[in-house]
Amino acid sequence: MGSMIILPPKVVTDTVARAFEQSRTAPDTARLVADALVRAEIDGRRGHGLSRVASYTAQSRSGKVDGHAAPHWEQSAPAVGRIDARSGFAYSAFDLAYAHMPRLAREVGTATCLISRSHHFGVAAHQVERYADAGLVALLFGNTPGAMAAWGGKKPTLGTNPIAFAAPRSNADPVIVDLALSSVARGNILKAADAGEPIPVGWASDVQGAPTTDAQAALRGTLSPIGGVKGASLALMVEILVVALTGANFAFEASSFFDGDGPPPHVGQVLIVIDPAAASGASTFAERMETLAGWIADDGARLPGSLTRARRQAAEREGLAVDEALYARIEAIADGSV
User: Fold this and answer.
1) CB 30 within 8 A of CB 21
2) How many Å apart are CA 295 and CA 329, to the nearest integer?
């Protein structure tokens, strides 16, 4: 990372939104995507933040992502909604889901949303956090373009396939879990390759399926799953959930999230929302959550997601630290120079 500059988050968001508007994206969608990317940057999830602007805008300019797409909702069963993202940005599809899912979950107890013809959905935690803020429990699964082999295989058959979970607390920030099923993000291997540095054993395998410390060989091969066969099995589970149930592309059929070449990736996502009031009951759920939270705190540990709100408050007070060269590239896109 190069030299940093400090800017108000709103200024950064405005610049990013202009970059998308210059790149064949409707103003409302441009603002929605900009909000998501800047929030990722604030939360310390830079791999899903401003570093994505160049690749996202390249895709909207080429038509790989339709920046003017309006996702479509259909309630296909009493507890099931389907969204066709129509090759647009996934953030629009998730906003549409939130317009329906809290009501549906409260009416029937548990509701499922199946999203097809979708795209990269950024920080998975953000998509479930809003449900916890509304007093609901949420689970989210998504697939990505091919990155990992099936256990015992060599080809990039499965995505990194993130899983996210959020649960509300009565008088505290929600519990939020967000993890990809690869042992490391591909971005870490890209950085090592650019620097000509080796990678640790266990991060990836080469095209022959052998573990490698060569970053270039790793980029041609596959990422390792977390926990060996357990992680590979979880990734397979996610692949089935989000493709067989939605009709989306499998990881090995999906095009890259990182460039403007090829057809839309058309990956899938599955969101499950549960109303605690229809399960154990709102008061029982709250009591059980606080018992668990207290036990963990007494042990000197903290719950996942507990630092997120503090980061956002600090950014509002003190500004957001942004890589100066990266921001200059975003400004160039916003000004139509790219």
Assistant:
1) yes
2) 47
CB atoms within 10 A of CB 210: 10
338 close to 26: Cβ distance less than 8 angstroms: no
Cα distance between residue 7 and residue 321, in whole Å: 7
**What is the reported pTM?**
0.94
Nearest partner of 141 among 77, 235, 229, 228, judged by Cα: 235
Instruction: Report residue 266: phi and psi, to 5°.
Output: 50, 50
Which token pair is 304? Answer: 């996942």
Which of the four pLDDT bands, split at 50, 70 and 90, describes residue 193? confident
SS (H, E, C) 271-307: EEEECHHHCCCHHHHHHHHHHHHHHHHHCCCCCCCCC
- Amino acid identity at 142: G
- Quick count: other Cβ atoms within 10 Å of Cβ 131? 27
List the one residue out of 37, 22, 117, 34 whose CA is nearest residue 70: 117
Q: What is the pLDDT of residues 4-52, one digit of tens each?
A: 999 999 999 999 999 999 999 999 999 999 999 999 999 999 889 999 9
pLDDT digits over 295-330, tens only?
Answer: 999 999 999 988 888 899 999 999 999 999 999 999
The CB density around residue 84, as the number of other CB atoms within 10 Å, is: 21
> Using an 8 Å Cβ cutoff, are 201 and 188 in contact?
no
